[in-house]
Amino acid sequence: MAEDGVVVSTQGKWKHPMLVFFKNIRLVLKMDSLGKEILLIAVPAAMALAADPIASLIDTAFIGRLGPVEIAAVGVSIAIFNQVSKVAIFPLVSITTSFVAEEETIERMNLEEIKVQNNTEKSNVNKEDTKESTKDDVKLENLENGSAAKDEKDKDLASEDGFEASPCKHTTVKDIISNPPNLKKQKRNIPSASTALVFGSILGVLETMLLVLLAKPLLSIMGVKSGSPMLLPAHKYLTLRALGAPAVLLSLAMQGVFRGFKDTKTPLYPTVAGDLTNIILDPILIFACKMGVSGAAIAHVLSQYLIALILLVKLIQQVDLLPPSVKALQFGRFLENGFLLLFKVIAATVCVTLAASLATRLGATPMAAFQICLQVWLTSSLLADGLAVAGQAIIASAFAEKNYEKATAAAARVLQMSFVMGLGLALLVGLGLHFGSGVFTKDISVKHIITIGVPFVAGTQPINSIAFVFDGVNFGASDFAYSAYSMILVAIGSIGSLLVLYKSGGFVGLWVTLSIFMGLRAIAGIWRMGTGTGPWSFLRK
Prior knowledge:
Blueprint: E1 2-3, E2 6-7, H1 33-64, H2 68-161, H3 173-178, H4 191-213, H5 215-221, H6 231-242, H7 245-260, H8 265-288, H9 293-318, H10 331-360, H11 364-382, H12 384-400, H13 404-436, H14 444-459, H15 461-476, H16 480-505, H17 507-530
Antiparallel strand pairs: 1-2
């Protein structure tokens, strides 16, 4: 039987865990309670997630007017910045969302329990009052007379001492129960939120120092050697962009906190405001001020600090960020799971970064085409992260409540929705990139190579969507270990394929490998739930 799209009992219907992916598939687009909850979280999250890549796309479009050398140089710098940033950002945000969702759910359950106890105690007090009402009526006259006499005596004593009698009365348990404190106006006490901001600040400063001090060696590793025409613009862009790393990590850590609250609307507005600022500043600094790639980097950095400032103000209004003690912070828990996801993100991004590095060795023109295709590929695919965020938050809360039925229903629904969205993205990206490549470049050679990459960029969208959403499903179930180890195996197979196919296929070989990479990621997610292992073992019972 189903109620509002959430299965109440699955006994006898879904005996094999693999069938869970088709559970209630007819409801995939239905706006029941579960569908509405997912979309209320996913849509603002997707818009916020897509805002920064869209701003990067606009950066690419503006920089593309400077020439193929500049756009290729910026492409290499962005690849390095993203690689280093994701090593810190991905574990931090993912852990923060899950932990905050768990803590917020437990806090809410405790408050509800206190409310029930207060109502019970209030009811018992009322019953006792009813039983004693008769006795009180009999004694009322004597009590009033005695009270009046006592009051007169108190007034006389107070006058002798030079004071007036106080009209205040003692607060009783009954008074507290009848008028409980307004808990809604109190700020949330979420230790994981404070911990996330501490880690975000430290990691942001370390990232800035790393990128500024090691810019040239990192560019050399990516194929931009000394004497290359790409070296100077790439170095300028990377070192300036590095100054915004603390703001990037802080803002994303705070977004992770809001996602844990299932609130993705609040982070949306600061993100849009910051990215609009970036878009406005781009043509001013790049062309009007004649700063070139440096202007694009400065515009991006200023926008990130604006986002971080607005988010911090919003978060302070809701959460008490000063914990009662250092022991209340979740350093150990963050580090334990953070290192697992650190290995995952390194394994995941090394494939994309290595592909970008090999594309650089093909020359400025192929690299420019690869960069444009990659930005479109990642931007469109990241829309699925909105569903991943929704799935993670809902599943984490459901596991905290031990509501496995809702966890299963939410996982199945977000995966089904991701596949449908992937099909739509495939059509949109295919047509848009084929006919709209002129938005990014006027170079005929670059546009020709882009058309070669269109089938891969568009065709992999359904697979990409499923792979990204599986990350959210695994994180919601706190299955960090499997997510890390499976990604390492996927990366090993993908890197081997990349080295072989690059030599034989060049530009096409790179995109075949990236397609294999995303396919293996999706298979790893399907295997975990489909076999009913780890946190999903209840599916086999």
